[in-house]
Design goal:
This protein is of the alpha/beta class. Helix content is 38%, strand content 16%. It is globular, with a radius of gyration of 18 Å.
């Protein structure tokens, strides 16, 4: 049986969290990852529960609010935020909480992060899947924005998330990272990147990451985690274009996981028609 393919609510931005539920259900995704962010609905487990039941689509993972733009969501203290993410996941029936490594200025949190995540994981069935990040670049130099490391291979996390847009930014070999993580790889953020210093989250197949190869490997190896489409559609001119990208990303994921042929990218057809 192939891994489930779910949709991150970040993939429908700037549309609302509620819109993500409607699109995911109608397009045929297996579930949703809720990115807890500035949208009030994403912060409210009871509201999410109502949306889940209304649209009949599972919430399979919760992304804790640990981005720069969500530093003040659910307060500013990191451990209580993770506890709230865990509680939300348990209420909503999600199996996984995605979390980023601490920023380097969160010194106390960073110092306790590896052992703290291990302790939290020992108290629940929820998987805390720590996500690979990347060095930040300023002009001609790099600096380590994450501690203890942006590379999740450097620490003994029980569960990890592999994000292919992030491997693009860090110039990492995504297939090698997946092999190195082995059974600790529990979660995948499916996106693409061109190798620039920007975290692009392109539609899979529109960049240089080995999206197809990774999916084929996961599909043939008994991977039992989740593949989450986490792409940027903010430049879509309308809902129809956004849904075209979401539909193609879903077909791309399911096709390659099953080792089947995948239909051409409709964006390429659109460019041909314009010419």
């Amino acid at each position: 049986m192939s891994p489930i393919v779910t949709l991150s609510t970040a993939s429908t931005y700037p549309e609302s969290t509620a819109a993500s539920f409607e699109m995911a259900a109608r397009l045929g995704y297996d579930g949703l990852e809720v990115m807890v962010g500035t949208d009030a609905v994403s912060q409210d487990p009871d509201a999410l529960l109502r949306l889940r039941d209304h649209y009949g689509i599972a919430i399979t993972s919760v992304h804790a609010p640990c981005l720069l733009i969500s530093q003040r969501v659910w307060g500013t203290e990191p451990w209580p935020k993770l506890r709230r993410a865990q509680a939300a996941a348990e209420l909503l029936g999600a199996s996984t909480v995605v979390v980023h490594p601490p920023f380097r200025w969160q010194r106390d949190y960073a110092r306790e992060f590896v052992t703290g995540i291990e302790q939290m994981a020992s108290e629940t069935d929820i998987r805390f899947a720590v996500e690979n990040m990347y060095p930040w670049k300023a002009v001609s130099r790099e600096f380590a924005a994450y501690q203890p490391s942006w590379d999740v291979r450097d620490d003994d996390y029980l569960h990890t998330t592999l994000d292919l847009s992030h491997t693009s930014v860090s110039q990492s070999d995504a297939l090698e990272m997946a092999r190195d993580l082995g059974d600790r790889l529990a979660h995948v953020h499916l996106a693409d990147g061109s190798g620039s210093s920007l975290d692009e989250h392109l539609v899979p197949g529109r960049g240089g990451q080995p999206c197809a190869e990774l999916l084929q490997t996961l599909g043939s190896s008994g991977f039992d985690g989740q593949v989450v489409v986490e792409i940027s559609t903010r430049k879509a001119v309308d809902r129809a274009e956004r849904e075209r990208d979401l539909r193609h990303a879903l077909a791309f994921a399911r096709g390659h996981l099953a080792g089947e042929a995948v239909a051409p990218d409709p964006a390429a057809d659109a460019v041909t028609e314009e010419v």
